[in-house]
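ARCHIVE RECORD
Type: protein–small molecule complex
Small molecule: coenzyme A
Source of inputs: curated submission
Record status: active
Notes field left blank by submitter.
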Amino acid sequence: MEDQISKLSLRPFHLSDIDDFMVWASDDLVTRFCSWDAYTSKEGGLAHLRDRTLPHPWHKTICLSDRPIGSICLTQGSGEALCRGEIGYALAFKYWGQGLATHAVNMVLSSVFKDKPELERIEALVDADNVGSQRVLEKVGFKKEGLLRKYLIHRGKTVDVFMYSFLSTDLIK
Ligand SMILES: CC(C)(COP(=O)(O)OP(=O)(O)OC[C@H]1O[C@@H](n2cnc3c(N)ncnc32)[C@H](O)[C@@H]1OP(=O)(O)O)[C@@H](O)C(=O)NCCC(=O)NCCS
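STRUCTURE (tokenized, with ligand):
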């Protein structure tokens, strides 16, 4: 497992990553808690990569030995919300349970506050049923701030969501 972790890296996406992207973007299990449905065609996945992922200011692919196996994204606020960013991530199912998402989030935390000095808080909004993702955040040191009741409409159903946060000052504690 340690060996896999040493092969992990983050880099920007390219359109040529489409086949690797489709491995998780077409999987209902991976996209179950995402705001978008699994893609059933390569054209749909390609449009997502081109129109949503590539223009995003901070959306990287999690690579294992330089090959994309997942994605990690940080969406920073603007105006009075400039101090905070929301993190999201997903991994291809085959790689779950090996500590890889935990390591990828740790990689982001170790550099992002230096790269973006205006950022003081990273938050994550996690479906109350998404226990694996909550565990990732807790292992990394995020604080569970509370339950946002009936916060989102997901696949036609209103769901409860946990709010987690990690502050720049949490790094040195
Ligand atoms: C969430 C996700 C990124 C986790 O990736 P991962 O590489 O498997 O995560 P890690 O191995 O670093 O850690 C997962 C932890 O959750 C635990 N876990 C996973 N599913 C669980 C469940 N149903 N119940 C309890 N614990 C669970 C694992 O045992 C592990 O904890 P441990 O190290 O204490 O044993 C991955 O499952 C995924 O891509 N899910 C779909 C997309 C998604 O939900 N993204 C998050 C949106 S907020």
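CURATOR ANNOTATION: Residues 30, 33, 88-91, 96-102, 126, 130-133, 135-136 surround coenzyme A (CB under 6 Å).
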